Amino acid sequence: MIHSVISSTAIFAASDIEATLTYYKDVLGFESTWTWGDPPVFGSASKGGVTITFNLQPELAKNIRGHQHGVRVDDIDQLYQYHKSTGAVIVSKLEDKPWGVREYILEDLNGYHLRFSGPMASDVPKSKPLPNEVAILRRKPTMDEYTAVAGPAFHHNDPNPEILEHTWGGVIAQLPDGQTIGVARIMCDAPGWYSMWDVAVVPEWQAHRIGSEMIKAAVELIREASPSAIIHLFTYKHGFYERLGFTKESVSVLRL
Ligand SMILES: CC(C)(COP(=O)(O)OP(=O)(O)OC[C@H]1O[C@@H](n2cnc3c(N)ncnc32)[C@H](O)[C@@H]1OP(=O)(O)O)[C@@H](O)C(=O)NCCC(=O)NCCS
Questions:
Q1: Among residues 59, 139, 195, 212, which one has the fewest Cβ atoms lying within 10 Å of its Cβ?
Q2: Which atom of ligand 1 lies closest to the CA of 198?
Q3: Percentage of the residues of the chain whose pLDDT score is greater than 70
Q4: What was the pLDDT predicted at 109?
Q5: How far is CA 22 from CA 17, 26, 51, 107, 150, in A?
Q6: Closest CA to ligand 1's atom 25
Q7: Residue 75: pLDDT above 90?
Q8: Residues 25-69 pLDDT 10s
Q9: Based on the domain organization, do 87 and 180 belong to the same domain?
Q10: What's the half-sphere exposure (Cβ side, CA atoms, 13 Å) at 216?
């Protein structure tokens, strides 16, 4: 038997590719798009690890209203607030479901129902104290460390080597045997302006305060270089960062 199945991508029927991609970017917060054809007959929108492609099929698109597509999300409450703020059409409000997820449904401009689901608030684990054997080191991750830890978390499976060359500083978490289990990158965007990127802890070591300690060390590192620095980050995990003193500047930007 040949096992060559790798991944799957939804292909939605659309009545207008450009209008659909604009809507997915401006209203649903998807980040990157490409199109094929002039005028486009095919296109794609991505967010995190999710990609949806669109095929120009106006007749089919007239009849798909209510067809559901599931999207798994980490911080469902933040994304819900974002979609409310951009005017997305919510057809089923956010709530905990008896089957153990927290979810809401919105309708896109073609009529597809996107069903976003995430963990229930009661599922966010209470963290244990930082284990003694974990060292928090103030240095940039190497490319191997970055790829091993941040790669799976952010779908950077083949990162551009320049990403670390342009990185100002960083923090890593390491075990006594040298294994790196956490990474965080700091960019200096302009004098006095810094941002944090790719903060990640490997799944088996999450909820041990490693993420928190890396952020504290990163903030110290920045403050030593620039005591009144403004620090930004882009996230949908507000709960984690707000515990560390960050405040919301916009739906996805926090500031310290
Ligand atoms: C987010 C992440 C970095 C947190 O690191 P961690 O070491 O697991 O978190 P900590 O143990 O330091 O958590 C500290 C507190 O934040 C809370 N917390 C952690 N993740 C949270 C989340 N997603 N939402 C709300 N609260 C969260 C913990 O419950 C804990 O709260 P408590 O003080 O009430 O016990 C880690 O879970 C991770 O790598 N996730 C995948 C990558 C990612 O999404 N990174 C963030 C990118 S912006």
A1: 59
A2: 47
A3: 96
A4: 96
A5: 9, 6, 15, 15, 29
A6: 239
A7: no
A8: 999 999 878 899 999 999 999 987 789 999 999 999 999 999 999
A9: no
A10: 10
Position in ligand 1 atom list of the atom nearest CA 153: 42
Nearest atom (ligand 1) to Cα of 182: 39
Does 210 contact ligand 1 (Cβ within 6 A)? Answer: yes
| Residues in CB range of 13: below 8 A, 6 or more apart | 54, 55, 57, 58, 60, 61, 64, 110
Same domain, 250 and 151: yes
CATH number, position 56? 3.10.180.10
* Cα-to-centroid distance, 191 and ligand 1 (Å): 29
CATH code for the domain in which residue 215 is found: 3.40.630.30
**Claim to verify: residue 102 and residue 188 sit in the same structural domain:** no
For residue 250, name the pLDDT band (cuts at 50, 70, 90).
Answer: low
Burial of residue 210 (CB within 10 Å: 0-12, 13-18, 19+) is buried
- Count up the domains in the chain and report the number: 2
**End residue of a domain, out of 77, 99, 122:** 122
Tokens coding 201: 């802890």
Q: Which domain holds residue 230?
A: 135-255
